[in-house]
Every structure is written in C-alpha cells, then in structure tokens.
Design a protein that fits this description.
The protein is α/β, with parallel strands linked by helices. The protein is built from six helices and twelve strands. It has one domain: Spore Coat Polysaccharide Biosynthesis Protein SpsA, Chain A (Alpha-Beta Complex), CATH 3.90.550.10.
C-alpha cells in the first residue's frame, strides 16, 4: 500500500519584481508578503496548518542569500529553481516586464516528492486555515481524458493530472460567493494566483514544449494563459472548480464578513474596494508577523 500523501503549500519568489534597493528588505513588498504568507501558514494560531503540511518557497537564481536565510529562519522550506525558457520563446511578450521570469513558476510541477500542492501567489492574506481545501471534490487527481484528440505537434500527456481553481472576479462588485453569473469574468478561465496541482515531470515537459509553439496561447498573461490553454474545458485535462469561498481577488466587505478563507490583495497598495476595514486587517496581520519574529529573534 502507498504511504500517506505528502502535501505542500508553495509560493514563488523572484527578484525581478523588486527593482532598485534590492538589499533593503524592509522596502521589498513581495518579500515581506512572502514572509507574511509563511507566517500565516506555519505560525499564526488562527490560520496555520494543523496537518503539518510543508510550506515551500521556490526561489529563482537571482534571489539574494539574505532573503533565503530569512525565509529559512522563518520556517519555510526553500527550494532553488532555474529559470524556464523555451528554445523559441522570443514570441512571448508579457503585458508587464516584471513578469518576464514568471514561466519559472512551472518548475513547481517538478516537486514530485509531493503528491499534491496548493500554489499561491505571495500576495495572499488569510482569515482561516486552508488545510480543508485538499478535501474538496474538485481537488482530487483525475485520469486524463482519452476521448479528446491531442494535437500532433504537442508531446504526450500524463496518465492523470490535477488542476483545480476558480474564475477571477471582475472587480469588488459581486455577491458572495461570486459565481459565473454574478461576479466571475471569462467563463471557463481560471486564476493562476491560487490553484491545486499534481506534480509530474511529464506535464512539466508538456508545458515547456508549449513555449516553443508560437501563438499556441496568448502570452500577455504568460503562465496563466499557458495553463488555461493546457487545461481548457474542451481539452484532455480540463481544470476543475473549487469553491470561491477559499479565495477571492478584489475583496469587498461582504466577502470579508462572510469569512472568505483568503484574500488575493496587495496590502501595501490601496485595494480595489478601498475598504478601510480590510486594509486595517491586512496591515495588522503584517505587524503581528513582524512582532512574532522580533520576539523570537
């Protein structure tokens, strides 16, 4: 019989989003956000894992030693990854230059020591634990469909796969929980800031091959559009839905009061809804995190 499943929470850190003053860690908001996420998942009594799920930060080669040292001290498992570039990826033109290294996120599929992973952008603030997401019906491994014709210029698909997520909200004006009729945009397209996957070298190689097929997906939103192409609903590996009660982008007060598990918002910026209450909550989490580590240090 197989041993127990190994699960992980994974986020991604690259220095391309930092720009100048890269050694001033107090001004690197993405780095602080990554620390905050690690603290919420590992240490904060209200939000931490109670199932000892690993918390992993994958870092690209340009992330400084000082950041890596701090993340390890905070309790994260740090995994070094190389950048991902295709042999013919000159056709990829992200809509923002800070996303130029974002395809390296695909390396998460190479973490095959884990059976399932929840991949999170670092700009997430939690209200409650996320462990239960792995029990969702949509978050289970699925056989790859064999009745869908594969494209001749694409490599073989894995025997099974997992990609579970939800649509992204248009803006802060939506009901709770948002659905395709009320609040979610682009029917059938998922948000690549929060999704569950099954690692597999076969699928990593499949994604990497897509980088060499010019025009196969719209490169404006880079890895999000690549994944939405690979897991389109009429393809062989359709993505599956998990409830939006786990995570919402463009959060409003009603979502917050109803207890959405996590919020995809940059607490250092004015959030879409301009809610003072939510901004206050998110900033308080940041200072609680700072206080927690100062006391330990």
């Amino acid at each position: 019989p197989e041993g127990p499943e190994r699960l992980a929470y994974v986020t991604w850190l690259s220095s391309t989003v930092v720009g100048e003053n890269s050694e001033n860690l107090d001004e690197d908001n993405y780095f602080i956000a990554t620390r905050l996420l690690v603290w919420q998942l590992l240490h904060n009594e209200k939000t931490r894992t109670t199932n000892n799920i690993d918390v992993v930060v994958v870092v690209t080669p340009d992330v400084s030693e000082s950041r890596i040292w701090r993340l390890k001290k905070d309790g994260a498992i740090v995994k070094h990854i190389e950048f991902v570039h295709g042999n013919n990826d000159g056709w990829l033109h992200p809509s923002e230059s800070r996303w130029s290294d974002i395809m390296s996120k695909l390396r998460v599929w190479q973490l095959t020591e884990y059976s399932r992973i929840l991949m999170l952008d670092s700009d997430m603030v939690l209200q409650r634990p996320l462990d239960g997401i792995f029990d969702e019906p949509g978050a289970q491994i699925m056989p790859t469909l064999t009745n869908v014709t594969a494209k001749d210029d694409e490599p073989d698909l894995p025997e099974n796969y997992l990609l579970a997520s939800f649509g992204e909200t248009f803006n802060e004006d939506h009901g709770y929980p948002p659905d395709w009729d009320h609040g979610l945009k682009k029917y059938g397209k998922f948000c690549a800031g929060f999704f569950i996957l099954k690692p597999s070298e076969t699928i990593f190689n499949y994604y990497k091959a897509l980088l060499d097929i010019e025009g196969r997906f719209d490169s404006k939103y880079m890895e999000q559009n690549l994944l939405n192409y690979a897991h389109r609903w009429d393809g062989a590996m359709p993505w599956r839905e998990i409830p939006t009660t786990w995570n919402i982008r463009s959060i409003n007060d009603h979502d917050f009061d109803e207890g959405v598990a996590s919020m995809h918002e940059k607490w250092w910026d004015l959030i879409f809804s301009k809610s003072e209450k939510i901004m206050g909550f998110m900033k308080a989490q940041r200072w609680q995190m700072e206080g927690y580590y100062k006391a330990i240090d």
